[in-house]
Specification:
Layout lengths: L1 H20 L2 E7 L7 E7 L1 H35 L5
Amino acid sequence: MKVFAVLFLLLVLVGGIGFYRGWFSMSSDQGSSESRNVDVNLTVDRDKMEADADAVKDKVEELTGDAKDEVNKLVQPATDSSPSE
């Protein structure tokens, strides 16, 4: 039961972020005035999703590259000052 709750929460979270970021949009169209039918359309903007994914990927690579540089700066003096026999 908890698995379904987590999956539902993830679905709501992705849907909310998707609408906020413009990945999804909804529109409705009522046919004729005599008809009681309403057409509801969900549009998915895959180009926007891919652009956002690429931006996140670039930012992660930038941050991990900076972290690697910092680690290398910390490790380099430790290896240079090791006691020699």
